[in-house]
Specification:
With 344 residues, the protein is an alpha+beta fold. It is 15% helix and 35% strand. The chain has three helices and 22 strands. The strands form five sheets. A five-stranded mixed beta sheet has the order 2-3-4-5-9, with no helix packed on it. A five-stranded mixed beta sheet has the order 6-7-8-10-14, with no helix packed on it. The chain has a four-stranded antiparallel beta sheet with strand order 1-22-21-20, with no helix packed on it. The longest helix is centred in the first third of the chain and has 22 residues. It is globular, with a radius of gyration of 21 Å. The chain starts with a helix and ends with a helix.
Length: 344
């Protein structure tokens, strides 16, 4: 009986160990850009780098709807609030504002998730007319912590958080409010799957020229070319308590990758790129085309979003990934258990 309890204890612990294993990284140089000084920033999830040197972050589940604008010294210089929030996990810059992704769904039970547009900057701002766009996945609920906006075309992307590899979805272009307070669709809109990205994605961001995007997990990140989503290369991130933010800005003509983490007094760090990867994503010479011609297979086809949302899609589980992982682990535990009980 003691042996059985021991193996069952391992089976219960395995799912919790997965996140810890993914967070283990080799030693990477830690260059602190700033430390959040605001005691209200306790679970930084999502990061945006503004052109003026400020950054924007938000707390994830458990907080009210608000984002913090933070200066280079780590001081909060502005807060934007908009009321209730369920599980905000991501931010993305959009023409001077930010898109807020209320897209967290750890249990895979939300009928829909939402994004909304709010202003950011110095001072206190309260948004009474933030129009939330309700989103549904074509195959049913998904957990997600990654929201990205192409700075050139304005295409809005969401990446699911799945251990065995995430899916990348596009928001219907005409569903995103063009400005704060603009009306949003009255009914939920369907996301369209356009590709895949690394598993267990906790955040992502476009490079400022729109030629590449980067998606991170707890310990590393992968750069993809855009819009063809080719894997350009991966790199390890500096050690963090629970890294759930990434942003890219441009300083002195070079791109800089910033990462943030949950926790009180957490730090925003610079994540160094390997030399070859830095060269691959470097800004193009002035006068070069901003982005290559779009791959016809990636461009949104006419009518891609015209189909009505299937009501049965709202009742499905969180997908095969988590169940497959759990099944494999439990099968392995069962095999070991049976072998241990076999007479010798």
């Amino acid at each position: 009986m003691l042996e059985i309890r021991r193996y069952l204890g391992v089976a219960v612990a395995v799912p919790f160990l997965v996140g810890g294993v993914l967070a283990i990284t080799p030693e990477v140089e830690r260059e602190v850009v700033l430390t959040f000084a605001d005691p209200a920033i306790v679970e930084s999830s999502g990061l945006v780098a503004l052109d003026d040197g400020h950054v924007v972050t938000t707390n994830d589940s458990g907080d009210e709807g608000r984002v913090f604008t933070v200066d280079a010294d780590g001081r909060t210089v502005g807060t934007t609030t908009w009321g209730e929030a369920r599980d905000v996990e991501a931010l993305a810059p959009v023409e001077g504002d930010v898109l807020v992704g209320d897209i967290g769904d750890n249990a895979g039970v939300r009928d829909s998730v939402s994004i909304l547009r709010v202003p950011v900057g110095s001072g206190e701002q309260e948004v009474d007319d933030a129009s939330a766009v309700e989103l549904v996945y074509p195959e049913g609920p998904r957990d997600a912590e990654t929201l990205m906006v192409d700075p050139v075309s304005g295409r809005v992307l969401v990446a699911s958080k799945v251990v065995l590899g995430g899916a990348l979805y596009e928001v219907p272009p005409d569903a995103v409010p063009p400005s704060v307070g603009a009306p949003a669709p009255l009914e939920p809109v369907r996301l369209r799957e356009i590709g895949s990205v690394r598993g267990f994605a906790t955040d992502g961001a476009f490079f400022p020229d729109g030629r590449h995007l980067v998606v991170r997990d707890y310990g590393s990140a992968t750069v993809y070319s855009w819009p063809d989503l080719q894997d350009v290369g991966s790199f390890d991130l500096p050690e963090q308590e629970q890294g759930e933010g990434i942003a890219v800005d441009e300083v002195d003509g070079d791109f800089r990758v910033l990462v943030s983490s949950e926790g009180v007094d957490s730090e925003v760090l610079r994540a160094p790129l390997p030399q070859a990867l830095a060269a691959a994503v470097a800004p193009l010479p002035e006068g070069s085309p901003t982005v290559p011609p779009e791959d016809p297979a990636v461009v949104t086809p006419p009518g891609a979003y015209d189909a009505p949302v299937a009501t049965d899609a709202l009742d499905r589980g969180p997908g095969v990934g988590p169940w497959l992982v759990g099944g494999v682990f439990l099968l392995g535990v069962l095999v070991v258990l049976l072998r241990s009980l076999k007479p010798r």
